[in-house]
Amino acid sequence: MNCCAALLFGEVSDEVGRLLYGWRRRRQESMDKIRALIVDDSSVMRKIVERSLRQAGVDLGAVAEASNGAEALTVLAENAVDLILCDINMPVMDGIEFVRQLQSVEQAKGIPVVMITTEGSESHVVQALSAGARGYIRKPFTAEQVKEHVLPVLGRKA
Amino acid sequence: MNTTSDVRTDGLNQEQWPELLELSTKEVFQIMLSAELERVSGDAAGAPLECTAMVGLAGHLCGVLSFRCSPVSAAIIASKMLGTQVKDCDEQALDAIGEVANMVAGNFKNKISGLSEACVLSAPTVVVGGDYRVHSLVAQSLQKTFKFEEERISVALELRV
Question: What structural domains does chain B harbor?
Fold first, then answer.
């Protein structure tokens, strides 16, 4: 009887062990995925940016979207994010003002922001970087350029 | 070509502007849609260009850049940009041609030394239909027509006095 119970218990504990291992692995994988926030007033451009991130090899988890800087601040108050891609020219609050305001948001500190914009002037680049952006991509852009600018700010090799 | 070319010209040398407008448009299509554009004559036959996206330029250069295409082309453009099927004159198709106009205008001004800093772009406006007239004090007008997927598309830059 004791022998049967030990065998049965052994099988159950093996099964529990396998389930726990699988759960832990899935949890770790989902924790490794990058949660992104894409800020652009064009819904098509938000989808293109998401697609380019995937093509660039970024292992994306949840993707949140916002159509301007003010909306992005609200999204950030409710969602944990690892990476922000942001346009500059947007209504209500532009991208540079958003990056400035982000610096005073405690839970957003350290989240890398990469600007993706048609504004290619040096003054825009300087403004964005001094406001706190970590990268700058000019539209039109390729997935390769996204890879080159995004992976390093995530601490990965491009 | 995978990135925009670093062709920069003196802002005063306006003789190169038609060439730069053509290059800016071709680059946007190559990079964002993986599509090659072929120049055709402005009066080439084809479906009416009933979708118009306009982006205003203000500052050192004042005017409007307009991108015109047929509803079918707008849907193809959106489909290629998104990698999914988009219907004619769908919201996404109109948004996509607005973004094309925005990128062509941005790419054009970034190629002209000093203009990138001194000229800002408006958000794109999209008009559907052919029965309209735009009135502005035009001093200079550049227009390029291309063949895209067997359809015509047109890009025009109208500069004000």
Answer: 10-69+97-160 (3.40.1550.10)
